[in-house]
Amino acid sequence: MGDGRTDGTGLLADVPVVQVSGLVVMALLLGGGLAGPTPPGMSPSIRRVLSVFLIALVLWLTEPVPYVVSSVLSVTLLYALGVVDTFAAAATGYASSLVFFLLLLLLLSNSISSVGLDRRMAQRLLSGEHTPRQTHRSLAAHILLLAVLVPSAMARAVTFIPIVKRLVDAYGLADGSGFERGAFLLLGHVNPIASMALMTGGGMALVTSEIVTSTVRPVTWVEWAVLMIPPTVALFGLGTVSAAAFSSVDGEKTVATADGNGAPAEEPRPFGTESASEVGSTREQRLVAGVMGATVLAWIVGSFVGIPTVVPAAAAVFVLSLPGVGVIKADDVRDVSWGIIFLIGAMLSILDVMESTGTLDYVVETLTRAVPFAALAHWQVVAVLLGLAVGIRVLFSTASAAIVVALPIVLEFADAFGVARLPLALSVLLVVGSTTILPFNTSAVLVSMDRGPLSHRDVVSFGLVTMALSLVVVVASWLVYWPVILSCC
C-alpha cells in the first residue's frame, strides 16, 4: 500500500496561475457574499447578487472550469444564498427564447458545414484568374454572401482558409505575402462584422436583439435588417479596403506570371471540380439549401404577420432531423457549443435577478457619483458608455458574452440620462463586434493567426483600425441614417 504521497507537488501544480487566481478570487467573493459587511446604502440582497455576478465574471474570464460548470454554479448560488426564493426564479434566463434560438441556429449552421454546402459555394464563387487585389475583393464579397446562410464567423473562416492557401499557391506567392496577410485579416477581423447584418446572423446579433426586445421594444427580423444592413455593409467594405492597404495587397501579379520570372506557374486545380466526397452529397446540399431558403423566407414573412423567429428555425431543424433525411444527428447536438449557450442563459438569469432586486439601479447610482455624467454633453455620455462596452469586450473571449454583460448596464445608464436606447444598443453591437485587441477576443482571429502569417502586432494594430472604423460608421448612422429609418417606423 502507498503512504498517501504523490509524485507531484500538489493538485494545482500544473494549473495555470490565472486559473488558480480565479479560484482564489472566487472563494474571497463567496465569503464576502455570505458574511461580508454591507456598505452603507446597499442591502444584503444586493451585496449577494453582486457577489454572484462578480464570481460568474471571474470564472468566465479565468476559465478554471468549463463554462457549463461555472454557469450552473452561478445560477445555483443565486438560490443557495437566498437571493431568490426558488431555483426556478434563479434560472429564468434559460426560459428565454434566445437560448433555444441560438441552439437552433448553431445546429442549422453545423448542418450547412456537415454537407459541404459552404465549401461548395466558396469554391465555385472564387476564381484564381484575377490579380491578388481583385481576388481579395472577391473573397470579401463571398464571405459577406455566405454570412446569410452560415451565422458562425468561425465556420466561415475555416471554410475559406484552405481556399486562400490554394490561391497563394496559384499566384506563386511566398509565405507571408501581402495577399496572404490581407486575406487572413479579412477572415479574422472583417469576417465577423458580416454576422451583424441580420438578427439571425450569429450570437452577437441574437443577444443584442433579445436584450433590446426585453428592455427597449420589440424589433422584427425585417426591421433589424433595414437598420443594420447598410451600416454593416459600409463597415465591412471599409474593413476590406483597410485590410488590403494594411497588408499592401498586390494589384499587378497574375497566375500567368506567378513565379516572378515570366514562367507560368503550375496550373492550379480549378475551383468547383472537387469530387462528391470532398464537397458532400449533392442531394443533401440541395435539401439543406432549400430548407434554409424557406427558413429565411419565413423569417421575412413572419416579421409582417407576427410569427416568432424561433418557430421557422425549430421547423427547419425538425425537417433536417427526420428519418430518411438525417442531416442533423445526435452527434451534432452533442457537438454544439453548450458552454456559450449555458453562459448566456446564466447571464440572463443573473441580470433578471439584478433587475428585480434593484442591483442595476444601485450600480448606475454608484457609478454616477463617481463619473460626472450630468456635466457631460450628450455625445460625451455616449462616448463614455461605448468606452465602457469596449473595456468589457477586451476581457472576454467572445463578443456575445461581452454584449450580454455590457449592454444591460449601458442601457440602464442610457435610460437614466435620456440617451436613445435603440441606436445606442446597435452602436454597442457595431463597436464591440468590430473590436479585437487580443487574439483570444475572437475565435476567427485566433484561428487565422494560428494558420496564417499574422503576428500579435498585426492583430492588435488592425483591431484598433476596425474599432476606429466602427466608430466612424456609428457616428454616420446615428446622425444620418437611423433617424430617418426610426422616424418612419
UniProtKB/TrEMBL annotation:
Please name the Pfam families in this protein's record: Na_sulph_symp
Q: Where does the UniProt annotation locate this protein?
A: Membrane
Identify the stretch(es) annotated as Disordered.
Answer: 257-280
The molecular function terms of the Gene Ontology recorded here are: transmembrane transporter activity
Q: Signal peptide location in the record?
A: none
Please give the PANTHER family that the UniProt record associates with this protein: SOLUTE CARRIER FAMILY 13 MEMBER
Q: Which UniProt keywords apply?
A: Membrane, Transmembrane, Transmembrane helix
Its recorded name reads Sodium/sulfate symporter
